[in-house]
Amino acid sequence: MHRRNSTNHNYKIVLFILDTLLIFFSFYMSIILNNYRYSLGENYWYIIVFYFITITLYIYFDFYKYKSLNLVKKYLINNILINIIIFGVLVLFIFITPYGDKVIFINIFKFYVPVFLISFVIIRVLIFDLIFRNFNKIDRFNRNAAVLGINEGSILFYNKRKAIRENSGLNIIGFIDLNKSFRKKYRNINVLGNIDHILDLSIKYNFSHVFIVESSLPVSKLFKTVDYLRANNLFVHVSENGLKILSEIDLFDIYGTDNRFIDFNFSRFYYRKYFKIVFDYIFSILFLIIILPILFLILILIKLTSKGPALFINERIGLNRKKFNFIKFRSMHRDTEENIKTHRESIESFYNGKESGKIKVNNINTRVTNLGRFLRKFSLDELPQFVNVLKKDMSVVGPRPCMEYEVGYFRDWKKYRFNIKPGITGLWQAYGRSRVNFEEMSILEYYYYSGCSFSLDLKIGFDTVKVLIFGIGGY
Among 122, 261, 411, 450, who pairs with 237 as Cys (CB 3.0-4.6 Å)? Predict the structure, then answer.
């Protein structure tokens, strides 16, 4: 069956083109306001650098999601913050290096920033918003959507379908029944059919989006339903209820109501198979070259402060449950067998209960060296794993690789972590680490498996840097 484009896809493309035009328009206006006294000439790279950094930060701050139309104040503040950051970085670069013309830079950017911010408010916030909402009122440009499950919450959501259509271009046409007994309780609603016939119904009523507004389903059944819908080429939007961990870390969107939804779209096959691998190689090689002095310093410090090898090499389970040699800096006293035994005993309460990840490490902290404690706090012990990336065992971003005796805990929907390469960093490292329990960690990993994309990897990468700088959640 041919895959359908999400309405959000076209929305992103239009906004991307609009932002591109706004950036170049603002540079052109800044030259005019300077009466053409300052030509960029050889300094044209200002525009290129500013453009790419701006778009990258827009992706990170979710400027291309529908919530940017609803949370206007937040995104205006973020936009000001983005311009301050970029301007500050470029000023620092130009004034401490021999590159660039300081006079041209200051005179161009003293007009660029206010012109861009004013243009952003007028064109992107006011005019685009007005055109977008009126455009969505035209039925033939809308995409149909259905609500899965019939309950008070989903009916309330359905009754706001006009606002949803204007804010997202999605036209809610009716319900997909999960429980036939609900037909008797709610008679005056448009029930399209039963979930067992979802594929036929999506063709008959031409809908490609499904909303799960309220669900009392346990996480395992919820994700089983999500998998079933995605297997039928449907875009799934799940209410944050039951997936609070994803909403708390800002992985949600808003479709015209107060409801927050977690989106489960199609897996980006080409990104995962081709672009992600290229990115892994290029980034790993460049990063290893940059941090080479730091690696040597850590190696020397480990050898000077404790007995044993500087590197710890251990078997881990990767893509398709394949074993590989996992490399990291040794952070514990030398006694590999005893360390593994202690680790194995200490993680049982983490995997079998609802405690946070801290329970996982309490029993092994006494075995960690003083230097190792520092390395773990800022995840510096993980740096050698970029060699694993170059060996194709790991990716820069992905679920953490587990040991063989941990595999048995990843059953049912949790086993999807083995369908993607393990990573040096990921959602768990960037947002959870020792602060979340096993269930929450697995939700983060499932979301990454189902929605692996460049924008998500970029977001994880930026937030990992924040975690490393401040040592958040480390141990």
Answer: 261
3-state secondary structure of 286: helix
Answer with the one of 135, 151, 185 that is the final residue of a domain: 135
Q: 8-55 pLDDT, tens per residue?
A: 677 888 889 999 999 989 988 888 887 766 565 566 777 788 889 899
- Residue 271 is given by DSSP the state I
Global pTM reads 0.85
How far, in Å, CA of 383 to CA of 385, rounded? 5
193 and 219 co-located in one domain: yes
pLDDT in tens, 228-248: 898 888 999 999 887 888 888
Per-residue exposure over 406-437, b if at least 16 CB sit within 10 Å of its own CB, e if not: eeebbeebbebbbebbbbbbbbbbbbbbbebb
User: Does a structural domain hold residue 2?
Assistant: no
Number of CB atoms found within 10 A of residue 225's CB: 21
Residue 86's contacts (CB-CB under 8 Å, 6 or more residues apart) are 50, 53, 54, 57
Chain centroid, CA 40 distance in Å: 36
Phi-psi region of 263 (alpha: psi -120 to 50; beta: other; left: phi over 0): beta
Domain residues for the domain of 180 are 141-266
Parallel, antiparallel, or unpaired for β 253-254 and 235-239? unpaired
Q: Which amino acid is at 349?
A: S
Q: How many CB atoms sit inside 10 A of residue 22's CB?
A: 18
444, 427 Cβ separation under 8 angstroms: yes
Same domain assignment for residues 131 and 148: no
Cα separations in angstroms, 95 against 52, 106, 470: 21, 11, 28
Task: For residues 304 and 440, state if they share a domain.
Answer: yes
Give the DSSP per-residue string, 28-91: HHHHHHTTT----GGGGHHHHHHHHHHHHHHHHTTTTSTHHHH-HHHHHHHHHHHHHHHHHHHH
